């Protein structure tokens, strides 16, 4: 049994079923993806059987807990089998009655979290459950369920039992604010050398309102205080000194000019870092490209859900003609940056014709796009599509709510099987595209 004091809060990172049982075609694709990435950025790799990144929520919660005077312990179960009985037994051995355990499950380990929480609660532990799935949890599932954004003040009130067993903090839609809570990465040093990059946010949120997006920060934008950014980077240097690749987690790079300015300032005298950013095609212009160049961006990710403008319109995503999209990709490539398309399959409005348009665009842009991140749509509770699709959801086993799995809902214009086969075709085509020699390599070979 752990000998930590009663003022210690245990942060629990639960395992994910997909890590132990990835889809074979997706697994094989990402093995070649990893090799292609490493050919440009030495040392890059995609872990198999473990998390691809640091569980960033741990750092944020740990920072808030330390701010209000609690000791913090991480129970990292990310590499153990996703079995409720075994997870609960391990946690009971590691804690004592009265211990506080915090969990923030995602969809595919949500059922696991509920089962474990109920067992722990019955054995006298205090469980606190939050995160993007908490809207589907009830007071019976944990000692306390928190829905929405969390702060040090809210955590203090929960832990001091000043709030009831269910709390909810709504975000300010359309709001722009600042964040000054300092994450603490000390508990995550066990991931040193186990993940290919670090993630840093200069802002949280996005002012777009795409109906398929499950980000809790949608339609609001909060800029991270420059002092917090500096604090985080100093932790990177101290705790992960070998790291050289940073993923800027801002949902839409360039949407906040202040966030970009803060990034440029904090890394002005740290030229050894390289960066990956993600952005919206509407945000790509000469000013943003120049800011990327000054920062040291080597890879730009852009969302590309479908080449069908009608499907995008139905999904509330502002869009441009695919020709304009292609020119933006070309502009980034001309600036020396690799472009990765975030391809989202399985949208409920997708049709066979939409899929064909998307396949054609992937082929036509094969000389500009470098890699593809492949996802199949999941109707997470925080997506605007969730309440619309709820009656069409046929599979409520959350272990099946995977971005490498079949749709858990009935699409509008085709069968589940047709939609799933289209996603697998995207995987196949993307795999063939990244397996071919690059244009530059072909030209070198010819010369």
TrEMBL record:
PROSITE patterns: RADICAL_SAM. InterPro entries: BchE-like, Elp3/MiaA/NifB-like_rSAM, rSAM, rSAM_horseshoe, rSAM_sf. CDD domains: Radical_SAM. Residues 190-417 form the Radical SAM core domain. GO terms for molecular function: catalytic activity; iron-sulfur cluster binding; metal ion binding. It comes from the Bacteria. GO terms for cellular component: cytosol. PANTHER family: ANAEROBIC MAGNESIUM-PROTOPORPHYRIN IX MONOMETHYL ESTER CYCLASE-RELATED (PTHR43409), PUTATIVE-RELATED (PTHR43409:SF15). This is Radical SAM protein.
